[in-house]
Structures are given as structure tokens and as C-alpha cells.
Amino acid sequence: MLEKRLLIVSGKGGVGKSAVSAALALMAQRHGLRVLAMEMGGVGGLSAHFGTGPLEFEPREIRPGLHAMRMDRSDALLEFLSNQLNIKTVSRFGPMARAFDALATTAPGIREILTIGKAVWEVNADRWDVVVADGPPTGQIGSFLRAPKTIKELVPSGRIRDEADMMADLLADEPKTRIVLVTLPEELPTTETMETLEWLRTEGLVPEPFLVANRTLAELSDAGTPEGPIGDAAQLHRSLWSGQQEWIAKLKTDIQLPYLFGLFTPGEVAARICDEFEASI
Amino acid sequence: MTDTILVTGAGGVGKTTVAAALGIKAARAGLRTLVVTVDPAQRLASALGVEELGNEPQPHRDEPHLWAAMLDASASWRAVAVRHADPEVATRLADNEFFQAASEHFPASQAYAAADQAATYVQAQAWDLVVVDTPPSSGGIDFFTAPAQMADLVGGRLLRWLTGGPLPGRKFLFNRAGRPMLRLAGSILGSDLLERVAEFLVDLRTTYDGVAHRGRQIEAIMKAASILVVTTSDPAPVREAIRFYRELPKLASTPTSVVFNRILPPEWANVEIPPGTPPELASNMEQWSAESTKQQDTRDEFEARYEASVATIAWSPSTPSDIDGLAGLLDSAEGIPWDALQIDVAS
To answer: Closest Cα of chain A to B35: distance in Å?
Structure first.
């Protein structure tokens, strides 16, 4: 896992995708790698797990060797425009920047390609050993991963088209890129993960993903069910556990992370998941 | 008069289950009730008696006052074009690759389609109560901002800039050679792409008055609705719930209650473990005690900091798979604001 250059973490909303992203970034940092953690999807998830304030587009070193940033479409667009137009500031092209921003909202693939593109550019810039992206939820991951292809279909020529070719290559590069799919042993996340896996296989855009089952319960041996809360807790645990087994059986996961009882700061959660990764990888 | 309850919150917290359970309680209290969901789990859909996607509400086979609809967001989005554009333009839009792509990719499109359809049910005045399970798309707040975002999209800044006027004709497309910005844009994006996007936007632009007007109607319905924010005690959904409490007063109204789902008995926080208890049961109890403590601290903090009315629903090991099970979920609930929701559960 740590030999990859780009890790894109996805999962249905609420499965702990940001916690897993933060944990992977922390693990890489513990191993002395230069890491960029990128908040791509929802705002605030990753920064909460790092215990930092809101992140910005400009990467900030939050621990030695670990930088974090927040993907911002408008900033990425300005960066793209100033790179492409070879001018220092696009601000004097304000109306143009605003128009492109509106275009990025409307035209299919533009928003996605800027987001995926930013991750790819950071990988290629060689400032980092690994880029960990807290990616879009599985409901949207398809349109992001497919963005380079969408652009290639819609745009016959132009510089964006050339960029799209380069991105598609990196995403499909097995030694360099890995998608990490986080799921829970419950009905909706499992179904959505299976659909996503099926889609990824059909499209063949990226190598086979790494599957993480989060919040799994350990089996509780049958040591009786005494009257009162102790027995009630045992009973709840057992029935939740057997419910989980039904969904765990449907997916072949690469790692099962334990349910974290009683932890409630996001920072603690990320640190514990990081320990779990260390122990198993 | 149709009342509306919007049930919102992060994904995976049991929002749809809570919306369904509320709807059943209301129907059993004698209110003609419609439950509107997006993409429910299979078992839940069966319990509600809807097996297929469709915007047509289905009466429940056993519950005389209950209807349910499972929204098809892509169908609703097409309905926007049909409703607000000339027939010829609507056809062209529906066939347009950008329209199709936008309906899949524009983050607020699913949310807008759901809000629009839900508003249609409320305006139909055929029910006493419409319970809406808001779609889980990128942050549930989308549901509330979608009408304005949609109007902004079709009223397009890009379009205004391209055409220099509020309501362009198609001929500007043939007259763009003189615009250096467009030539520059074309060299980066490919001129063909820009032209096709512009054409799409011109068509979409003709729906602006309709969409803007509709957006104001939808917003009025949201402002008049009761809002329940559902969450578990985990940090991520709680953060989302906080966001609703901070932002909804501006966008719609202050949430009526925050509903904490999957709650353990508070007395589990302090359980004395008698000697002779098998060690695995003792350590299991300790785990769940820690969880119960965390839950209570989380609730107390939420209540104090946001002056929120707090309701709790007990953790049931399996999602109820029939209608009685769903109704039963709320029998053990505490603090559900039945009076504020005008549901007479005593009857």
C-alpha cells in the first residue's frame, strides 16, 4: 500500500471514509514518507480527523512530512488557467475565470477532471512520495474516475484533451494507483460497494480496489446471558454480530477494522485505525 | 392544508427508517400521510409497499391512510424540462448529451428533482401530511440549496457573460468570432465543446423564469415545513447535524428536533460487574458502557450548545422489516415532538 503514489479513498456516505483516509496518510507519515492528504469530497471530514482547522487549497504542513489541503474547484481552475496561459495571475482575467467557473459547474467532466487532475498533477510534481485523496462518495466516484474518458469523448482537441490522456494513464497504472473502498457490514453500504466494484470492473479504468470493512464486531463466545444489562449487552452484541456476518459474507474484504467503542474524537478514531492498518499490512 | 415534515441528516444514520416510521405513526393517528423516499433499502421499500421507482404515490395495501412514493430522480429532472420549456426545446434538451450528463453529474440535480417532486405532492393538497426523506447526495444540505442553485445554473453566469444579455437568441453563436475571450477559451477547451455547451445553455435558459418561479414556491414550502435532523452518536454524522443546526435557520427554518438513532440504555454507562461474571461478558459490558457514555456526552453537548430539542430512538439489532416493526421503533422512542408535528399519537 505504501509503495503506491496515489490512493483514492471512497465509500458510501457515513462509512468512515475520511477516517480511513486520515489513517492511511498518518501511516505513511509514520514511515517517513512525504505525504499529501487531499480533502476532495465533503468539506471538513479530513481536517477533523487531523485535528487541524479548516484546510485550504495551498498545502499546509500539519505534521512533519505530512501536508494537507482541500480541493477547491475554483482555485484548481485558476491554477489550471495560469499554467495553461503561462501568465502569473489570472485575476485580471476575472470575467474569464468566472465564466470558466460557471462552465465547470455545467459541462460534464470539467469539475471532475479538475479534481482528479489536481491529484494527478501533485503526483507528477514529485514533491510527495504518496498522495492520499479523501475522495468523493461511491455514488459519484464513477463520474470522477471516468472524467478523463468523458473529456476524451467530448473534446476532440485542445490542451484539456492532452491532460485527460495523461490522467487516464496514471489512474490505470497498477504499481502507482490504488482505489480504497470503505464499506460497512450493513445492507446499503454493501449493496453500493458491490455495484461500485461491478462498475469498476466493467469500465476497467483502474486496477482492482483495496476493500476495507469498517466497524466490524468481534464474535462474542456463548458464555451465557445473565439477567440484567450484562446479558442485554451480550445479546445486543451477538445479534448485531450475526447481522454483520450476513453482509461480510457477500464481499471479500482486504481488511476488517474493528468497531471502536467509546471513542469520540475524530483524531482518536484516525489514530486507532492507523494502528490497525500498521498491524495488518 | 398539507403539513410537511422534512427528515434530514447524514447518510447511514437510519433517516429513511425514521421517516417511514413517522409516516406510519401519523397514518395510524388518522392523518392521510404520504411518505416520500429516495433509494431506500429493499426491506424498507417492501415494508412501505413500494416495489418500483416511480413518482406516482402508491396506497399501502394494509394501512388505509398511508401512501408511499420512491422517487426516480432522473425522471423528475426530465420533468423539469417538460414543465418549463416549450415542447420543441424540451425534446431537444432531453436528447442533449450535456443535459443527460448534467442530470447525472450536477451535484444538486438529484436534490432539486426530489425537492421539486416533494413540493408537487404538498401542493396537490391530497394528503394531510407529507413526510420527505431527503436524498443522501453530497451533504443533505443540497436539498435546501437546490432551488437557488438550479435557478443560478439555468440563469447561467457563463451564459450572461457569453451573450452579454439576460435573454439571448441563438444567433449570438454565429457572431462570436469577434470575442477574443471565446477564441482563447476555444483553444483550451476545444471550440466545438464550447459551442455545444453554449447551445445547451441557451435552451436551458428559456426555462429560467419557470424554474426561478418554481424555486420560490419550493423554498416557501421548505420554510413552512417541520425539520427533523437524524443522527447517530458518531462524530461524522454529528458534525453534519451541527451543520444543519447552523445553516438551516437561514435556508429554511430552525430544526424542530435532533433525533439520535441507535441509542443504548443510559443505565449501561454505569454497570457494576458482579464477581464470577465470565470475563468475556465483563469486557463486552465494558465496551458497551464506554459506548453508552459517549452517546450520552454527545447528546448533552448537542443539547446545551445548540439549544436543541433532543429525541432518542433505541438501538434495535435489525432494521424492522415490516410495518408493525417500523411503528414499534418509535414506541420506545423518547422526546419525539409529536405535538409540534401535530401528530396525535394518543388517539
So the answer is: 19
Say whether residue A261 is in contact with chain B using an 8 A CB cutoff: yes
This prediction's pTM = 0.86
Residue with cell 456516505: A13
Helix axes B191-205, B87-95, angle to 10 degrees: 140
CB contact B236 to A (< 8 Å): yes
Is pLDDT of A103 > 70? Answer: no
* Nearest C-alpha neighbor of A121 from the set A153, A64, A159, A79: A79
Q: What are phi and psi of B183, to 5 degrees?
A: -65, -40
> Residue A88: left if φ>0, alpha if ψ -120 to 50, beta else—which one?
alpha
Burial B45-54 (b: 16+ CB within 10 A, else e): bebbbbeeee
Which residue of A10, A103, A138 is the best one to mutate when testing the B interface, meaning the one whose CB has the most B CBs within 10 A?
A103
Closest-CA residue of chain A to B293: A262
Q: Where are the beta strands (DSSP E) in chain B?
A: 3-9, 33-37, 54-59, 66-70, 129-133, 226-231, 257-263, 310-314
Grid cell, residue B231, equals: 443522527
Instruction: Select from B339, B327, B329 the least CA-distant residue to B60.
Output: B327
Distance CA(A226)–CA(A101), nearest Å, equals 63
| Test mutation, A40, A106, A261, A272, chain B, max B CBs within 10 A | A106
**Cα–Cα dist A220/B272, whole Å:** 20
* Three cell numbers, residue B110: 438529484
Whole-number Å distance between alpha carbons of B178 and B168: 17
Per DSSP, the three-state class of B146 is: helix
Residue A208: other Cβ atoms inside 10 A: 12
Q: Flag if B239 and A44 touch (Cβ within 8 Å).
A: yes
Spatial separation of the C-alpha atoms in residues A132 and B244, rounded to whole Å = 28
Residue A57 in contact with residue A76, Cβ under 8 Å? yes
Give the model's confidence band at A21: pLDDT under 50 very low, under 70 low, under 90 confident, else very high: very high
Give the percent of chain B with pLDDT over 70: 79
- Interchain pair A106, B158: CB under 8 A: yes
Q: How far apart are CA B71 and CA B296, in angstroms?
A: 36
